[in-house]
Structures are given as structure tokens and as C-alpha cells.
């Protein structure tokens, strides 16, 4: 699994504080929505050459970590 900590960043003034990729204006949500719509990683990289494969994998790792954290909060409640 890719360590997303060096790839995903939160900047209050950028994209309303949503998690972005390497300081770009592309959010984790953007990438997840593209994947959910059926775009392949290769298609995303072709459309957004400023991204690389690790960026896409970091978005998935970030989402998985958030989901894992969210699920643990529900179990504890």
C-alpha cells in the first residue's frame, strides 16, 4: 500500500480545505469520483499528466484509511 502522507495534503485556502494531491488543485474526491465513474487509472493519467500512478493509489489508501477510522468510531460508540 502506498503511504499517502507525503502525497495527500490539506490546505485551508485550496479547494475549500479538501484533501488535495501534492498541493495541486486535484482533490482525492475528484480521483475517487473518476474511478467510480469507470475511468481506469491509465485514462486518468492520460487526462491529467501532472498525476502519476502513486497519486491515484494514494487516493485509494487515503479513502481506505478514512473508512477504517470511521468504522472504528462507529464500533466504539
Task: Explain what you see.
The protein is mostly helical. The chain has one domain (4-76): Winged helix-like DNA-binding domain superfamily/Winged helix DNA-binding domain (Arc Repressor Mutant, subunit A). It is built from three helices and two strands. It has helices spanning 28-36, 41-47, 53-76; strands at 8-10, 19-21. Strands 1-2 form a two-stranded antiparallel ribbon. The longest helix has 24 residues, at 53-76. The mean pLDDT is 91.
Short description:
With 77 residues, this protein is mainly α. The protein has 3 helices and 2 strands, in the order ββααα. It has a single domain, classed as Winged helix-like DNA-binding domain superfamily/Winged helix DNA-binding domain (Arc Repressor Mutant, subunit A).
Beta-strand content estimate: 5-15%
- What characterizes the major β-sheet? 2 strands, antiparallel
CATH superfamily placement:
Winged helix-like DNA-binding domain superfamily/Winged helix DNA-binding domain
As for the number of domains, it is 1
Gyration radius (Cα, Å) is: 13 Å
Structural class: mainly alpha
Query: Which fold name corresponds to the CATH topology?
Result: Arc Repressor Mutant, subunit A
Number of helices: 3
Number of strands: 2
Termini Cα gap:
29 Å
CATH C-level category:
Mainly Alpha
Q: How are strands sequenced across the largest beta sheet?
A: 1-2
The dominant shape is: globular
H/E series: EEHHH
Provide mean pLDDT, rounded.
91
CATH architecture annotation: Orthogonal Bundle
Uncertain parts: none
Approximately how much helix is present in the residues?
Answer: 40-55%
Amino acid at each position: 500500500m502506498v503511504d499517502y502522507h507525503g502525497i495527500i495534503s490539506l490546505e485551508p485556502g485550496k479547494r475549500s480545505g479538501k484533501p488535495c494531491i501534492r498541493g495541486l488543485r486535484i482533490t482525492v474526491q475528484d480521483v475517487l469520483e473518476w474511478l467510480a465513474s469507470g475511468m481506469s487509472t491509465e485514462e486518468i493519467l492520460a487526462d491529467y499528466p501532472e498525476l502519476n500512478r502513486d497519486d491515484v493509489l494514494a487516493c485509494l489508501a487515503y479513502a481506505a484509511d478514512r473508512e477504517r477510522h470511521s468504522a472504528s468510531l462507529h464500533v466504539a460508540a
